[in-house]
Write a structure and sequence with these properties.
Elements (H helix, E strand, L loop, with lengths): L2 E6 L7 E7 L2 E8 L10 H4 L10 E10 L3 E7 L8 E3 L13 E3 L1 E3 L3 E3 L1 H17 L5 E6 L1
Parallel strand pairs: 1-10
Antiparallel strand pairs: 1-2, 2-3, 3-7, 4-5, 4-10, 5-6, 8-9
Length: 143
């Protein structure tokens, strides 16, 4: 089974940096909104709309059509309290509304760049898993 691992650092400067890996191999960097999750407390009690990273957990990953991002958009499914969570490009937390941004390089403490290459790489790895008949997942771990 293909399971990407997103390991994030503590939130800092209004954003949360992390690393996306597969089978222990670094794929790219991630950038998310601030982690506000309070384990054991319902999402609606700690979420600030469009300003909160999704909760830790294991989620099914798919490629779906998005009106905003187009066909074959990386989609994280069944996230409690969130809808339409996509992994996409963007440079700062201002470019996300809870979605993990992907980039090949970090910029300071609250940015990423070379996003198109990172998104293309993760899409290809996801397509490869689907072609093998696998159901890809992403595990999000907060440190």
């Amino acid at each position: 089974m293909t399971t990407f691992l997103l390991t994030s650092n503590p939130s800092r400067d209004g954003a949360t940096q992390g690393v996306l890996s597969l089978d222990g191999v670094h794929i790219c960097y991630t950038l998310e909104d601030v982690v506000r999750e309070v384990p054991g407390v319902p999402v609606e009690r700690w979420k600030i709309k469009a300003e909160t990273a999704i909760p830790a957990g294991i989620y099914r990953l798919s490629l779906e059509n998005s009106g905003r991002f187009g066909p074959d958009t990386l989609t994280i499914n069944n996230v409690p309290g969130f809808v339409a969570i996509r992994m996409h490009g963007g440079n700062t937390a201002a470019n996300t509304e809870g979605c993990p941004l992907l980039g090949l390089e970090r910029v300071g403490t609250n940015g990423v760049r070379d996003c198109a290459k990172a998104v293309a790489l993760v899409k290809q790895l996801t397509r490869d898993a689907l072609a093998r008949g696998e159901v890809p997942h992403i595990e999000i771990v907060r440190t």
